[in-house]
């Protein structure tokens, strides 16, 4: 028997609320109700994934549910917000129960890891499009913005650069290397929630890496009206990605490949001792505008662009 829209929501998406002091009312009414505790602000972000644009048709629904939530939690992490609630807009070509079961399993696997409540959404028929709005609590005036980088700050990144990019190459047919690690990074990025909360005590600016560091770091530089030089020799690159670079000569991959969802942040020199997370120093913020790369003893501008949806 086909499920109606309402049964579908009850069956696959309605769960008991974990953050009941914040989420006063969840799925079922015309709106959800949220309470923002004193001394906090609400950080809000939305990310959409469209079949054929952000993921291949037929991709495993469980990974898709996981990744859809992960990319949204990554945006909250980049502003030092603690995730508390999400809403989910699903546009589905058909009601496919095994797809829904897998998708919601992946989605809630990550939601439960961070105690995030799904408090509402919308379900419509149409070409497969998945959208999440995520909400997080941040202490008043403590959100780490893109605009705070200062000349002399050092630039740091969590994790490794380029693994998701290598994973994408592999799922797209590259056979020179087998890397379950890289493929896992591509399908199930780990949002840096813990790190995002920690850095609010010392970071001047932060962004999460969705389009590749060469592209994303430029947003910090532009908003902060500064420039920077990255040191290629300092970039954290996993053994598998190093092997890929040796095979192909594609040394730019860690700079331009997207979807790593690591955090890139800047810290002024007098606060370096406060850093309490695993991260790697990769460069320095400078007065001179633009982004440069130091490699093999030469310093040159980085011209590469990240992915832009409406660029021709
Ligand atoms: P309305 O027509 O008033 O917008 P809907 O009939 O679309 O309400 O949805 C009924 C309830 O189910 C609402 O509380 C809505 O937030 C929730 N909901 C609908 N679709 C989803 C979904 N995909 N995930 C989570 N909650 C959903
Ligand atoms: Mg209504």
Main features:
312 residues, seven-stranded mixed β-sheet, binds adenosine-5'-diphosphate, globular, alpha+beta, 9 helices, binds magnesium ion, single chain, four-stranded mixed β-sheet
Give a quick summary of the entry:
With 312 residues, this protein is of the alpha+beta class. It contains 9 helices and 13 strands.
Describe the structure.
The chain starts with a helix and ends in an 11-residue tail after the last strand. The radius of gyration is 20 Å and the shape is globular. The relative contact order is 0.16. A 7-stranded mixed sheet has the order 8-10-7-11-9-12-13. A 4-stranded mixed sheet has the order 3-6-4-5, covered by helices on one side. The chain has a two-stranded antiparallel ribbon with strand order 1-2. Strand 12 and strand 13 form a beta hairpin. Helix 2 runs parallel beside helix 3 and helix 4 packs across helix 5. The chain contains 9 helices and 13 strands. The chain is 29% helix and 27% strand. By secondary structure, the protein is of the alpha+beta class.
